[in-house]
């Protein structure tokens, strides 16, 4: 391994911020070789340029509306919670009556 230090080193806290990771995850990544770090004076440092190269911001997943079945499950769960508290809840409008 090349032991030359890059001139853009940042500490662990800053590196975790750049990658939007918790510190333990950053340390785990370093231990597994996913990110390269340099230990100096008992502390770990990371190259800002290397971190930025591996950081690819992703767009949030599109939010899809719940399906009819999911809405029905949520409604039934809410009704069950209300019934458990003593509320009189009419059956769902789509339910068949006996």
Comma- or semicolon-separated keywords:
3 strands, 4 helices, single chain, 98 residues, three-stranded antiparallel beta sheet, alpha+beta
Provide a descriptive summary of the structure in words.
- The chain is an alpha+beta fold.
- It has a domain at 9-54.
- Helix content is 42%, strand content 11%.
- It has four helices and three strands; from the N terminus they run βααββαα.
- The chain has helices at 12-19, 23-31, 48-54, 68-84, and strands spanning 9-11, 38-40, 43-47.
- It has a three-stranded antiparallel β-sheet with strand order 1-3-2.
- β2 and β3 (43-47) form a beta hairpin.
- α1 (12-19) crosses α2.
- The N and C termini lie far apart (76 Å).
- The model has no long low-confidence stretch (mean pLDDT 86).
Distance between the termini: 76 Å
Q: Strand order of the main beta sheet, please?
A: 1-3-2
Percent range of helical residues: 40-55%
Radius of gyration: 26 Å
Beta strand count: 3
Strand fraction: 5-15%
> What is the 3D form?
elongated
Report the average pLDDT across residues: 86
Number of continuous helical runs: 4
Q: Can you summarize the main beta sheet?
A: 3 strands, antiparallel
Short synopsis of the structure:
With 98 residues, this protein is an alpha+beta fold. It has helices at residues 12-19, 23-31, 48-54, 68-84; strands at 9-11, 38-40, 43-47. It has a domain at 9-54.
């Amino acid at each position: 391994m090349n032991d030359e230090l890059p001139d853009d080193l940042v500490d662990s806290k800053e590196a975790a911020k750049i990658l939007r990771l918790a510190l333990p995850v950053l340390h785990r990544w370093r231990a597994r070789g996913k990110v390269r770090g340099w230990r100096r004076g008992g502390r770990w440092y990371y190259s800002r340029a290397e971190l930025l190269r591996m950081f690819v911001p992703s767009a949030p997943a599109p939010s899809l509306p719940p399906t009819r079945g999911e809405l029905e499950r949520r409604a039934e769960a809410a009704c069950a919670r209300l019934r458990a508290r003593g509320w009189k809840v009419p059956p769902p409008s789509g339910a068949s009556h006996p």
